[in-house]
Amino acid sequence: MRIGKYFVALPYSNEKHNSTIHAKILKLLLYRIARRPDVGGRGRMFTPEQETHIVNMVIANNEIRLREIQQRIIDNDTIFQNIHSASISALSRVLARHRIRMKEIYRVPFERNTERVKQLRYDYVQRVMELEADAMGHELLFVDEAGFNLSKTRRRGRNIIGHRAIINVPGQRGGNITMCAAISQNGVVHHHATIGPYNTAHIIAFLDTLHDMLTGGYRMRCGRNFVAEPRKTT
């Protein structure tokens, strides 16, 4: 079929069906009729800039809740001056539109990757390598302290798809059941548990007991030289 300078290939069908298609194509080509954009109804609640600010709230604090976002929007008269109320479902749709999902929170200590801690880890490895290369033949004792935290925190948070939901936590949070132990290649040499943090008095008492054990029966049985090295777990 030819319409002006256009050639249109139509599928074989009955005459009534072809005439309907002819009319639609003719109307489109001659009058350039297209579907009008949707009008009427309620428009979008947030502008693109406001949605970006909401996303930044979640990126800055992965454990933030929808109700906290809602309260911040209501309290903010600078960016959200035209927003007097925002439902939880509306905020959830905004986050979903920007590919932000609920996921398990991954906890990261404050100073794990600071330059100071990295240098301490490097020095620790160098010290262990020097002791292992010593001709005297030392046996290393690793002194480690671990706390089983009794406090409860939020387990889930939000972040962009493909990224972890991360929260920075302090080293001590709430009540702990703390275990301190000295470990050699032959197993646990000494251990002690206490309720609460392992303060200076506990550490001194633990090291005194460990020293007595190493200078007494345990050292006599093994006949080895020991070097106590604190284990870096930061």
Automatic annotation (TrEMBL):
Gene3D superfamilies: Ribonuclease H-like superfamily/Ribonuclease H
Domain of life assignment: Eukaryota
Residue intervals of the Tc1-like transposase DDE domain: 140-211
The organism's taxonomic lineage, starting at the top: Eukaryota, Metazoa, Chordata, Craniata, Vertebrata
Protein name: Uncharacterized protein LOC116408604
Pfam family, one: DDE_3
GO MF term set: nucleic acid binding
